[in-house]
Amino acid sequence: MPLDVKVPPMGESISTGILAKWHVKNGEAVKKEQPLYELETDKITSEGTAEADGVITLQVDAGAEVKIGQVVATIEVGAAAPGAAPAAPAKPEPAKAAGSESPAVRRLAEETGVKPAEVAGTGKGGRVTKGDMLAAAEKPAPAAPAKPGPGPAPAFPPAVPAGERQTRRKMTPLRQRIAERLVSAQHSAALLTTFNEVDMSAVMALRAKHQDEFVKRNGFKLGFMSFFVKAVVHALKAVPSINSMIDGDTLVENHFFDIGVAVSTEKGLMVPVVHNCDTLGMAAVEKAIAEAAAKARDGKITLADLEGGVFTITNGGTFGSLLSTPIINPPQSAILGMHAINDRPVAVNGQVVIRPMMYVALTYDHRLVDGREAVTFLVKVKQAIEDPARLLLGL
């Protein structure tokens, strides 16, 4: 009995997508819940899975545009692939089971030649993560007899085809959507950016003092982003006009604190949202950020993870950026840009000292945020980071 494989509903605002890649071949035997294909939309990348055991017949080529509800394949339920050998009694370990790897792991396997089954997984249940694959790819290969001429090109990222002056590839729906939103933000809002610098000494000392105990209790490290999330919440409460947006001819002021944290992925920039940050402790914020970032990079992000943000934080310092002017994430009214931490000479109490300093930037929509409010907001963030006790005392 054939079972249709249909593109599932992805949310009211998504009607089409690109079937970017098949994870199975035509006529191949598949198992229930096995990943079948990768679907790219203008908001997220998701996987389609098998609803039953059987043999699959593909009806759409990889790279084709498909509609929600469209049949892209059929599964002959209960059938076996032609020439298939009887199933062996032994079962593979859950961490190494076929199809259990994330899209990021599968892509790295293709690009680097590293087999996930041969990599020790550190993820939940022993699953192989993207980090495990990158670490395995970076390990030196066994020594081989020396050969004349240049050594082999690195396997990651992929090498440019020999002799090619250009390569062309179609923009993904997600990349097209990012481009449209960024251009729209610049055309529809009156964007200005104000800057300040933050002495990171206090936060760095606090992390160094309590990091071991924090890790022992929570199982993960205390980063910088959770401090900035709490500092932003603190500043939003002090300057509520930043926590607002324009809806037509109406000014909407939010009274909740769902903060988006920009994450760079292979598909493009995504902004998963950490909800109710005003009610979360530092450990809960740090955990939520780490989990959201992992989902984004592994292609497991959902629309619910991206919706509801009132303010966004982006950290260009991860890549070494000294200073930048971030673009707001509409319909939000502002975005905070973090940057690299560098030791610099600064004047403290009349003396020149070396301190770990970070430039911060606040880009805001001047249609509803005045310069005085933007500067005040950034000063509040600066004060909270330089003296974290303010966050406890609400000063």
Explain this structure to me?
The chain is α+β, with helices and mostly antiparallel strands and 395 residues long. The protein folds into 3 domains: 1-80, OB fold (Dihydrolipoamide Acetyltransferase, E2P); 91-136, Dihydrolipoamide Transferase; 191-393, Chloramphenicol acetyltransferase-like domain (Chloramphenicol Acetyltransferase, 2-Layer Sandwich). Helix content is 27%, strand content 26%. The chain is built from 9 helices and 19 strands. Strands 9, 12, 15, 16, 17, 18 and 19 form a 7-stranded mixed β-sheet that branches. A 4-stranded antiparallel β-sheet has the order 1-8-6-3, with no helix packed on it. Strands 5-4-2-7 form a 4-stranded antiparallel β-sheet, with no helix packed on it. Strand 4 and strand 5 form a beta hairpin. Helix 1 packs parallel to helix 2 (130-138) and helix 5 packs across helix 8. Mean pLDDT is 82; it is low at 90-98 and 140-156.
Which runs of at least 5 residues are low in confidence (pLDDT < 50)?
90-98, 140-156
The Rg value, from CA coordinates, equals 25 Å
Residue share in β-strands: 25-35%
CATH class of the largest domain: Alpha Beta
